[in-house]
Amino acid sequence: MNGHKKNKVIIIGGGIGGLAAAMALVQQNIEVLLLEQAEEIAEIGAGIQLGPNAYAALDSLGVGEAARARSVFVDCLTMKDAVDNHVIGSMEVGDAFRQRFGNPYGVIHRADIHLSILEAVEDHPLIEFRTSTRIETVDETENGVTVIDTQGNQYHADAVIGADGGRSVVRQKYLADPPRVTGHVVYRAVVEEEDMPEDMRINGPVLWAAPHGHLVHYPLRGGKQYNLVVTFHSREQEEWSVREGSKEEVLSYFEEIDASPRRLLSLPKSWKRWATADRNPVEYWGTGLTTLLGDAAHPMTQYLAQGACMALEDAVVLGQCLKIKQGDFSAAFRLYEQIRIPRTARVVLSAREMGRLYHAKGVERLVRNQLWKGRSQERFYDAVEWLYSWNVDNCLDM
Fold first, then answer.
1. How far is Cα 142 from Cα 180, in angstroms, rounded to an integer?
2. Which residues pair with 81 in a beta bridge?
3. Rounded distance, CA 365 to CA 81, Å?
4. Does residue 174 carry a pLDDT above 70?
5. Sheet order of strands, 87-92 included
6. Which among 35, 183, 232, 321 counts the fewest CB atoms within 10 Å?
7. What is the pLDDT of residue 42?
8. Phi, psi at residue 393, to the nearest 5°?
9. d(CA 144, CA 31)
């Protein structure tokens, strides 16, 4: 890095990925200006799952201890057939899993993982963040990059990272590729412990696979709450959106499932309804002094529970690439893309296929139900080796 003047990077977006990127950059002694369009830096949603790769990334960013303190570490990941209530497969994520992958499998409220990184960001002298700042355009100049917001304010830096989510303004400028609306609708809610049936208070994610949809539930905040996620193939022509949902709509898609999982659908007092989208993988995320990170780079469906995990990995790799390239932002960004694009594309495409498995019907459902029959835990671990064995020591592998 330049010994006389600190390099400065603008990060657009104050979500999990943007905050993680800020922590990765200051480890390389780079000043960060974080621009967030919301009035306050916060995180909406409910629970998310964190694989061992996510905890490895959080540790590398210096926030692993804070995130662990707010996590619930689970015992197993279970898939059940919602029609006949039998177990399709179950992967234990206890001691043997931790020994294999070096870290646990956990679940956490989205606001809690966000807060765990935000606390570190707020305490760091090299990071400045501004809220209520909506970006309109990004322009590269001879002296770096200029970012202009909707109020006409200009911000200058040596480079820009677009971590501004699935509807990224930065991506639109450089790629202008359309989102792929899936037609799948996701309902999310949080259920208090006392409202959750006792036999459903299981310490781990349980996925109930149904024709055209599925349900997932798992504990949050020490088991005081439960995250409930319901997904289905919509009958409507969907647009990428978030709005309030209705219990009646949810129930109408799961009339044929077993009474045991179906009773969960009446528990939430309110639902948020997401019509989902992802994007097809692309060969580059930016040019020159600009790149993308997290959902701006690789928005994905939720079927592998890896959206936040991939954003955390991105941040670590970006920091390592900047270290290797010693302040040459363009070279570091291209190396980062070379490493991250194939891995994140594999997750995007694998998530799509996993969604198909979850929602199988007819003969496909029968085939799905036999896929993991008799499988040993070691074989389950072998199947997820490519995903969960990621850590800072191998993160630059291609």
1. 35
2. 209
3. 9
4. yes
5. 87-92, 76-81, 206-210, 213-220, 225-233, 180-192, 272-278, 241-244
6. 183
7. 61
8. -75, -30
9. 14
Half-sphere exposure of 331 (CA within 13 A, CB side): 7
Q: Tell me the Ramachandran region of residue 71: left when phi exceeds 0, alpha when psi lies from -120 to 50, beta otherwise.
A: beta
Kindly state the DSSP code that residue 250 receives in the 8-state scheme: H
Burial class from Cβ neighbours inside 10 Å (0-12, 13-18, 19+) for residue 177 reads exposed
In the structure encoding, which two tokens stand for residue 330, read together? 């363009």
- Cβ atoms of 366 and 85 within 8 Å: the answer is no
Instruction: Report long-range pairs for 221-225 (Cβ below 8 Å, ≥24 apart).
Output: 221/70, 221/72, 221/109, 221/112, 222/72, 223/72, 223/193, 224/192, 224/193, 225/109, 225/190, 225/191, 225/192, 225/193
Tokens of 167: 């509807």
| More confident call, 245 vs 343 | 343
Contact 160, 17 (CB under 8 A): no
218 is catalytic: yes
pTM over 0.85: yes
Task: Examine the pLDDT at 46 and tell me if it is beyond 90.
Answer: no
Q: Which residue is associated with the tokens 């199988």?
A: 360
Give the residue with greater pLDDT, 103 vs 41. 103
pLDDT digits (tens, 9 = 90+) for 52-82: 999 999 999 999 999 999 999 999 999 999 9
Q: Is 3 in contact with 161 (CB distance < 8 Å)?
A: no
Options 55, 105, 218, 253, the catalytic residue: 218
CA atoms of 29 and 168, how far apart (whole Å):
26
Residue found by looking up tokens 């008799």 in the block: 374
Domain boundaries, the chain: 8-179+279-389
DSSP for 152-206 reads --EEEESEEEE---TT-HHHHHHT-PPPEEEEEEEEEEEEEGGGS-GGG--SS-E
* Rounded (5°) CA angle 334-309-370: 115
The architecture in CATH of the region 8-179+279-389 reads: 3-Layer(bba) Sandwich (3.50)
Q: Alpha-carbon distance 339 to 86, whole Å?
A: 40
Q: Report how far residue 285's alpha carbon sits from residue 14's, in angstroms, rounded to the nearest whole number.
A: 19
Cβ proximity of 244 and 213 under 8 Å? no
- What is the β-pairing status of strands 47-50 and 106-109? antiparallel
